[in-house]
Each structure stands twice: as C-alpha cells, then as structure tokens.
Amino acid sequence: MIRIYDTMKKKKVDLETVEKKKVGIYLCGPTVYDYGHLGHGRSAVCFDLLRRYLSYRGYEVTFVRNWTDIDDKTIERAKAEHTTVQELTERFIRIYEEDFEKLGILEPDEAPKPTEHIPGIVSFIERLFEREHAYLLEDGVYYDISTFDDYGKLSGQRLEDLKQGVRVDVAEGKRNPGDFALWKFEKPGEPSWPSPWGNGRPGWHIECSVMSGRYLKEEFDIHCGGQDLIFPHHEDEIAQSRGAGYRFARYWMHNGFLNIDNEKMSKSLGNFFTLRQAFELFSPKAVRFFLISSHYRAPLNFSEETLRQAEAALQRFNDFIGRVAEAKQGERGGTAETIDAGIRRAREGFTEGLDDDLNVSKALAALSDFVRDVNVLMEKGELGSESAGLVIEFMKEIDKVLGVFSFEKKKLDGEIEKLIEERIFARRKKEFARADAIRDRLLKMGIVLEDTKDGTRWKRA
RNA sequence: GGCGGCAUAGCCAAGCGGUAAGGCGACGGUCUGCAAAACCGUUAUACGUCGGUUCGAGUCCGACUGCCGCCUCCA
Questions:
Q1: Which one of A54, A73, A92, A285 has the fewest beta carbons within 10 angstroms of its own beta carbon?
Q2: Which of residues 257-276 of A touch strand B (CB under 7 A)?
C-alpha cells in the first residue's frame, strides 16, 4: 500500500485512487516570465519522482502540469521588455522545457495554458454565478468565500483570522477581505478577452480549477504544488471547484522549499540560483540527485557543500554501475541465483521506503547496502557475468524511478586513448615517473584512471 | 497577532514506544610501484532545554528556547 501525506488531512493516508490502478495528478507549474530557479526545479523533480514511482508501481498515470502565462508578472515583464505577453511566455516556456528536460523530468501528458482556455474559464465563472458564489464589482468578478463552508480547511485559516491578516488594499465593495478575483477587467495596454461581464483576463486561481477539470476527471486523485501555494492559491481553487459542484482533488501534496542560507529561495528575496547557473557548476543529474535525495516535504538547504555531497554520492553509484558493466562483459561464470536474493531484498527496501510517502532516504539506504554487498562480491571475484547483467537490469529498473544514473559511457577520442595506452606501456616497463606524468595530464583533461588487477580503467571526472 | 513546520554526529539524513539506518567528509588499515576505486575499522552513553507519562522515550504529553514558512505575487 502506498501512503502519502495529505495536506488536507494533515497526516499520512493510504492512496486510494478514484479508479483502481489509475491515477490523475495535477501539478501547479511556474509562472513563465523569467528563468526557473532551483526551487522550481525542486517542485518539478519531487512530483516527477511521484509520477515515476506510481507508474513503477503499476499505476496508469495521467500527469498534468500547467504553465501560468497570464498574470501581473507576465504583463509587467512583457511591458518592460517591450514585447508581447505571448512572445515572452513562449520564450520562457521553451527555456523551462529545456531546463526540465536536463533535470530528467518526464514531459507531462498535458501542459495547458490559461490563455488557451478562456472559453472554459468563462463558462466556469458563469456556473459560479448561477450557484451564487460570484459577484460583480467595478474592477472584476469576485468569489465570495463566505458562501463556501469549508473555506480555510486546507490551510487551517479561519475567516475571522484572515480579516486581521489582510495587508493589501482591498477592492472597494469586497464582501470579505479574502474574496479573490475570478475575472479582472481590462486595463489599457493589457491583453484581454471578451466575457459576458466585460473584456478582461482570468484571475490567477481559476485556471487550475478549469484546466484540472478539463484534462482530469471531475474528481481526480492528487493535486500538487509548492507549500507556498497552500494559501491562498489552493484554498481558492478548492472554493471554486467545490463551489461549482465538482468533487475536485482527493489528496493534496506539497513540497517544501529550497532554502539558501536557511531562507526560502525566491524571486522576491533575490536570493535565487537559476537552474542554468546551477548547471554551470554541477551536472544536471547531480542537481536532480540533490533535489531528490532529501524528503520532499522537508526544507532543503542549497549550498556548494550539500551539492558536492550529492555529487559524490551519485558518483559512487555510477562508479558501481561502470564496474558491474565490466563484470558483465567478463568471462566469469557462476550462477545468477546468488544475486537474486540480494536484488529482491534491495527492491523490497527500495519500494518499502518510497511507499512510505516517498521516503527516499530509506530507499537509498537499501540501495547503498546492496551496492556494498555487490562490491564485496566483485572484490572477491565472485560476481559472474550473468549476475552482473541482472544487477545492471536492476539498477536500470531503479533508475526508471530516480532518473539519475549514467549507464552509457561516452567513447574516448583517439588522443586520449593513445595516452592511456602509452601509460600502460610505461607502467609495464616500470617507468613510473612517465606513467604518473601521463596520468596527471589525463586528469587535467577530465579523465581519471584506476589501475586494477584486471587492467587500467578510466572514467570521466 | 493567527496558522503551520522543524531542531538527531563536522555536514546531509532515517527513525513514529524497546535501547541510534544510510550517505558525504575525516582518520587508521587491506589492496596498489604510487595513487584512485573498493572493502574493513574508528568517528552521537546520545537525539535543542527543562519537566511529565511509562518497566522503558529522539519516538507520547506540557512548558521553554531557537530557526523557518504561510497569512501579499511566489514551486
């Protein structure tokens, strides 16, 4: 049984999907007006892990992640850059897609944008009018949160408390300070679409209610996003969708923040590292491993040190895979039975960990034990090629979920190959000074050599 | 002010009432021409502090302290 932490219930619950062995997931994606930073990467990676894991466990997954392409930010930025909102958002969507691909994030089944769902948004608001949740003001259409009994349930906010917390100027005539815009009337120079109430654009929250309903079922399984979206965004989505008479999401999952110096990484604090900056310092797979290797709900502190640790830990797995791959090529016999039990145990530990609300630490501990055991076998020369093949298959199986390992070794270019051979020759003649010089030279070229009893092995630094 | 989260070794981190997983780093060892990798060993009488419950508590309860987040756009 897979257990997940449900923000609504504030505890771990058994995952019971609407339809057996099928799961519909909606993830609130980024607003596309600027480069994505590691925090966006974390959210995307966390729920990519969820999606991959559920699919590994036999679920047929429908995964929807939106791009928010119309809001104050995109409008402002487009203005500042003297371009259109559409040009700007399309440009950044492409950038996000590239970055996400590097992070090993699988493409969503649907990646909807609110600007392409205006008719659906308009009819959704009409429905809210019919059900007397919406009202009209001078600058837009608003949702009356006092008409929805469960308002505040997700975030644990009470209506009365919210009144005190209000720090923004509220529009004239709002019935409750927490009422939010469903539709904002046109301002000069801003993109707008027609509606029964006047030209304008959708409010922020409405897009997710509409698009999740469009691409998933009326009641779907898991709604995900960053913790900062719990209030007001997700609270408001619930109010809209339930208000409109839909059952909406069964479970709510939220990822913790990526911190830098123990503070939330965010655009407004200006303390962010873009994904691209991170990729200049570390390989995308190392970044993914870093983002994955700590529990998704816990805060994760970014620093060069923590990234380096992740890189080293990943290196150990990749070195392992490289060595096993060589053993697979070898002639060594032996039965595969010996390794079967180990693989089974590792798989059990791995799934037991991830079943428990994606406890990656537990899963990786099982994998670490497995790696050590197989290393011991190899050390003793007891890993047959058939067994090695099974180990590789198992690591590939695991990697369908983790998406971090490297199985392909890129070919060496001729010059490097020649240097390696030259060094082997020098070592045979016991010309160690020359051999060491060549090794240093190769190291500077990014090639690390390891002399083993079976010969010299190379890998990339 | 309201709501919520977190505090475990040098660092990251699991643990969910039965006597401290795993990883990174460091040190010692085996192996090696030397390294590297791998393996073995060492690295928390102790889980923010103080009380309480219990035969027994990082693990439950209370108080306190310190961090962080949400309450406003935000993954």
A1: A73
A2: 257-259, 262-268
Mean per-residue pLDDT over chain A, rounded: 93
Residue A161 predicted with pLDDT over 80: no
Span of A42-56, A171-185, A365-379 with lowest mean pLDDT? A171-185
User: With a 7 Å cutoff on the CB, does A212 touch strand B?
Assistant: no
A447 CB and strand B closer than 7 A: no
d(CA A211, CA A119) in angstroms, rounded, equals 11
**What are the residue boundaries of the structural domains of chain A, listed by start?**
3-114+123-132+204-292, 304-402, 414-460
- Which residues in range 121-150 of chain A are in contact with strand B, contact meaning CB within 7 A of any of its atoms? none
Under 8 Å CB-to-CB from A254, ≥6 apart: which residues?
A7, A224, A225, A226, A227, A229, A230, A297
- Mention the CATH class of domain A3-114+123-132+204-292: alpha beta
Looking at the predicted structure, is the pLDDT value of residue A239 above 90?
yes
Is strand B within 7 Å of residue A443 (CB)? no
A375 CA → B39 C1’, Å: 8
Residue–nucleotide distance: A401 CA to B40 C1' (Å): 32
Give nearest nucleotide to A363 (CA–C1'): B22
Each residue's pLDDT tens digit, A113-156: 999 999 999 999 999 999 999 999 999 999 999 999 999 999 98
Whether residue A366 contacts residue A302, with contact meaning beta carbons closer than 8 Å, is answered with no
> Which pLDDT score is estimated for A441?
94
Residue A133 in contact with residue A208, Cβ under 8 Å? no
Distance from residue A261's CA to nucleotide B28's C1', rounded to whole Å: 35
Whether pLDDT at A167 is above 50: no
In this structure, which topology does domain A304-402 adopt according to CATH? Four Helix Bundle (Hemerythrin (Met), subunit A) (1.20.120)
ipTM confidence: 0.95
